[in-house]
Amino acid sequence: MNYEKISLYFSVMQLVFSLILFGTYPLNNNQNALYHTMAIATFMLLTALMGIYFSLNIQYGRIVATAWLIISIVTAYLSIQVSPYMDSSAKPIELALATIITLVWIANLYFARKNGINILKI
Amino acid sequence: MTEQKRTTFDDYSLEEVPSSERYGLYNLFLTLSAAFGAIAVLFAGGVLGGGLSFTNALIAIMAGNIILSVIGALTGVIGAYSGLSTYVGWRFPFGRIAGKILGFALITVTTGIGWFAVESWFFGVVMNEIDPTNPLFSVWVAALWGGALMILSTYIGYKALSFLSYFILPQHVWLIAVGLILAVSLHGGWGAVWSAQPSSSMSMADAITAVVGLYIAGSLIAPDITRFARKPSNAVVAWVLHMFIFYPFLLIGAVAIVLLAGSVIITEDMLKLGMGFGVLLIIILGQWIINTVNLYSGSLSFTNAIPIRRDYSSIIVGIIGTLLAAYWGYSAGASLQPFENFITLLGSLLPAAGGSVFADFFVVKPYIEGVKNAYERYKLIPGKEYADLNLVGVISFILGSLAGLFLNFGIAAINALAVAFIAHIVIAAIFKSAGVKYELGKYLYKGGLEK
How far is the CA of B150 from the CAs of B119, B188, B304, B337, B359, in angstroms? Predict the structure, then answer.
């Protein structure tokens, strides 16, 4: 399968996840958790749209750059889940979706490399 | 210019970076931001937050930013035009021998060995705080393996540096944003930020000096990174963008967090906010990339002084720095302060070198020597002879350094830079009109590591 098609599927998957995250917004029971959900959902939405745009326009370098951006931010997001200020019933869903997204984009980079794209030069 | 790809990690240390090995705006923006900003900026923001109100801190940051944007854009564009590292570029205003000595004294000793050792030692301290009972996390052992890790990424060179920046920069931005939102929402909203009073006081001049001083060395050695820019405009835009988007964001974020949370040590405040693992991530990755840049510049300047491959010189310089850090760790930080004072003093001479370079590239070369094409001003052509010593550069550097050390007004770094800049132009014009030969000695440039 073409790399741009794989990226398109992954981006659409992320778009759906971001909408689910927006849906979990009311489940948050404190303001900090609420901000956090809003931030990760907005980030996922924007980067999913970027991923879709770049995939449709077959811009490999930009897809790879987006993949690195998503992996970096989601890792940072996951790293502060220990905070007591992040406790809310929405968090397990967020955590699961963010972990899946990280794995998905790591896989995306693997496919990019398999397709001969330089994933270290963006 | 050779278009042949290299299989080693020399990173074109003594020659022009070929166009096939250059990068675009996004890469440059990330690398500059992550390499020169990151953790040091956070701590500086913390210090500003401890001494200024939020409004005054904003004014100081913006004033300092304007100065640094101009300086960094000017040096950055020189790197992009020439494709040469800072120190190889210094062969033009100072001559080869003086350029080698200055590069070695001002960068290899200070940044490459000195600050690399201090940061590696600090890495050991942080690791020891995380797990004091684990022998692998004792200060000196952690300094050793931390230093080795940093040597490895420096060995690979720009590729590793830019790769690390893909990871680290967005993470830093996210973590600071979360810290900022948490601090604001937990301590009474933005109104509390604007009305918060600092725990001590700092004058505006001191604050601007701090903002400029923190980053001026990075601004002056920007060609080490911007020589990889595909176009000169990429170097300027990437520099200005990171100065006006990333740098103030980190500083302002840190100021707000410190004003609200109380301690001037930003990471302590973030721990208080409950960002446990996130803070650890900032410290470890921040130190890693900062030290990779320290050693990278150190290895480039070392290779300029002693022509061996840059990847090899990163090992030599890195091992010296790591052993120094391990020694400090073993002897509980003994003799660190006098050494820090010494490398700070040496580092304070750097702006004078920058002033001479600006004068030479932007005024002397085009208007006195008649080299109008910016790509030709600092071009090393194999088989061509170049000067061993440029008296104009050396004299103006000495005058600028004296101004920086002894003038008691304004910002010392700017004084040094301005005096060296003016002196370089005036002396060059006088020598030229009097017919005095100021470029002494000749050496034949053979290209790359062949000297």
Answer: 10, 41, 21, 23, 35
Specify if B8 maps to a domain: no
3-state secondary structure of B325: helix
* CB < 8 Å to B181, chain A: 32, 35, 39
DSSP assignment letter at B115: I
CA A73 to chain B, closest CA, distance in angstroms equals: 5
Interface predicted TM-score (ipTM) of this complex, two decimals: 0.85
Crossing angle for the helix pair B158-186 and B139-156, nearest 10 degrees? 120
Cα separations in angstroms, B28 against B87, B229, B249: 20, 7, 18
In a domain, B124, yes or no: yes
- pLDDT tens digits for range A6-28: 999 999 999 999 999 998 888 87
Number of compact structural domains in chain B: 1
| Interface contact flag, A31 B185, Cβ < 8 Å | yes
Q: Identify the domain containing residue B290 by its residue range.
A: 21-344
The per-residue pLDDT for range B171-197, each reduced to its tens digit, is 888 887 877 777 777 777 777 777 777
State the smallest CA–CA distance between residue B172 and chain A in angstroms.
Answer: 8
Residues in chain A within 8 Å Cβ distance of B275: 80, 83
B21 lies within 8 A of chain A by CB: no
pLDDT at residue A81, rounded to an integer: 65
pTM of the complete model: 0.87
Write the CATH number for B294.
Answer: 1.10.4160.10
Count Cβ atoms within 10 A of the Cβ of residue B262 and give its class: 0-12 exposed, 13-18 middle, 19 or more buried: middle
The amino acid present at B363, given as its one-letter code, is V
In chain B, which residue's Cα lies nearest the Cα of A37?
B178
Number of A/B CB contacts below 8 angstroms equals 74
Residue A31 to chain B, least CA–CA distance (Å): 8
Q: Residue B7: inside a domain, yes or no?
A: no
Contacts made by residues B371-375, CB under 8 angstroms, sequence distance 24+: B374/B81, B374/B232, B375/B81, B375/B82
**Structural domain contains residue B313:** yes
Average pLDDT, chain B: 86
pLDDT tens per residue across span A67-116: 999 999 988 888 776 555 566 777 888 889 989 999 999 999 999 999 89
3-state secondary structure B379-410: CCCCCCEEEEEEHHHHHHHHHHHHHHHHCCCC
For chain B, positions 408-437, list CB contacts with chain A under 8 A: none
For B391-438, how does the pLDDT look when each residue is reduced to its tens digit (9 = 90+)? 999 999 999 999 999 988 888 889 999 999 999 999 999 999 999 999
Using a 10 angstrom Cβ sphere, with 0-12 exposed, 13-18 middle and 19 or more buried, the burial of residue B398 is middle
